[in-house]
Design brief:
The complex is a heterodimer of chains A (252) and B (132). Chain A is of the alpha/beta class. Chain A has one domain: Bira Bifunctional Protein, Domain 2 (BirA Bifunctional Protein, domain 2), CATH 3.30.930.10. In chain A, 31% of the residues lie in helices and 23% in strands. In chain A, strand 8 and strand 9 form a beta hairpin. In chain A, helix 4 crosses helix 6. The longest helix of chain A is centred in the middle third of the chain and has 18 residues. Chain A is globular, with a radius of gyration of 18 Å. In chain B, 18% of the residues lie in helices and 34% in strands. The longest helix of chain B has 9 residues. The chains are: A alpha/beta (252), B alpha+beta (132). At the A-B interface, helix 4 and strand 8 of A face helix 1, strand 6 and strand 7 of B. Strand 8 of chain A pairs parallel with strand 7 of chain B.
Chain lengths: 252, 132
């Protein structure tokens, strides 16, 4: 355990889901191999996309897949926990790429800490949010404001949390989120008496994650991170032939 | 999470650092995850295991467990052919928490390289690794 090593935050801004997924998978491989200088936390916002978890979730669609395709919204199956969910502009998404054993963290603790960061952030906007022991995530009076879905590969976590800041909630009505019927969703904009902004919420989430897990932050640009990744990937594949397998972009 | 001294690591089993255990019975290796692993994961709600007949190398992912919205991969402690996956875990994934060394076992494997058995950790060695 190296508590003195800061976590590095990367602000990706708006990025297509498939592109962020490919970046996460490359980071997990590099982090598990010990090739990165410590842990990385990605902050990102996605264009509209539905994703399903390891246990599936397409059966939780309440409208025909064609209806969603007609709107140009992809459905991507991924390796995280949980069922189907929606991401879209105005939602703060955080992907912690953490080496759990080196952080002395178990997955249950990580999930609980991610929930706590969302609860404290909501409180900053005068919204009383809490937990539901039966269904993890962040809740405001029976409505879901934040979701969690993680994966762990070779001790390294990826995927993460999605916190509804100010987004069109209609696409949530096309699914039964988290496999639970009749669960309402809400957003910070809807619940808070104060104005909300995605960058301010990202800063609050980062601050509370640092507090909860006892880590300092360092900023790293996407470009510098890319250089670090490519340096390792090139060293692993010295013949320069095969680049890392790209993850196909979702259709649309 | 429980302190290390409250977790159990039976002497007769062998372990790997990725937190799987192995028990060899009549030449077939029974594999599961340790008490430490189940405690770290929290309540297991879903277990994905390979079909019988699949051959996997040591260190390869053989399946996954989902707990508290997190999917964690499982790794082969030794190379071999899967002869059986625990059918009880389909409907009762909580057995992994309740009985990690008993009813919560995951797969039975025919080892393809018996020499690999010598490289597994004893209970004392595994416990030592956990102390870090």
């Amino acid at each position: 355990m190296k508590p003195s090593v800061p976590w590095r935050a990367v602000r990706l801004g708006r990025m297509a889901y498939g592109e962020a997924l490919a970046l996460q998978r490359r980071l997990v491989a590099a982090r598990a191999a010990g090739a990165l200088r410590g842990d990385i936390v990605l902050f990102v916002e996605h264009p509209p996309v539905f994703t399903t978890g390891r246990r599936g979730g397409r059966e939780c669609l309440l409208v025909p897949e064609e209806t969603i395709a007609a709107r140009g919204i992809p459905i991507v199956a991924v390796e995280r926990g949980g069922f189907i969910t929606y991401h879209g502009p105005g939602q703060a998404v955080v992907y912690p790429i953490l080496h759990l054993p080196q952080n002395g963290l178990g997955v249950a603790e990580l999930v609980s800490g991610l929930e706590e960061a969302m609860i404290r952030t909501a409180a900053d906007w005068e919204v009383a949010a809490g937990r539901d022991a039966r269904n993890r995530g962040c809740w405001v009076g029976g409505k879901k404001i934040g979701s969690i879905g993680l994966a762990v590969r070779r001790g390294v976590s990826f995927h993460g949390l999605a916190f509804n800041v100010d987004l069109d909630l209609e696409p949530f009505s096309w699914i039964e989120p988290c496999g639970l019927a009749q669960v309402g969703v809400t957003s910070l904009a809807r619940e808070s008496p104060r104005p909300v902004s995605l960058p301010a919420v990202e800063r609050a989430l980062a601050r509370y994650l640092g507090e909860i897990f006892g880590r300092f932050w360092e900023r790293v640009s996407r470009g510098d991170l890319e250089k670090e990744l490519v340096a390792w990937e090139t060293a692993v594949e010295p013949r320069g032939g095969a680049p890392p397998p790209p993850v196909p972009s979702p259709p649309g | 999470m429980k302190p290390l001294q409250e977790l159990s690591f039976p002497e007769e089993l062998r372990y790997v650092e990725s937190h799987e255990w192995v028990r060899v019975e009549n030449g077939v290796a029974r594999i599961g995850i340790t008490d430490y692993a189940q405690d770290q994961l929290g309540d297991v709600v879903f277990v994905e295991l390979p079909a019988a007949g699949k051959t996997l190398a040591r260190g390869a992912a053989f399946g996954s467990v989902e707990s508290v919205k997190a999917v964690s991969e499982l790794y082969m402690p030794l190379s071999g052919r899967v002869v059986e996956a625990n059918p009880a875990l389909d409907s009762s994934p909580e057995l992994v928490n309740r009985s990690p060394y008993g009813e919560g076992w995951m797969i039975r494997v025919e080892p393809s390289d018996p020499a690999e058995l010598a490289g597994l950790l004893s209970a004392a060695e595994y416990r030592e690794r956990l102390k870090g």
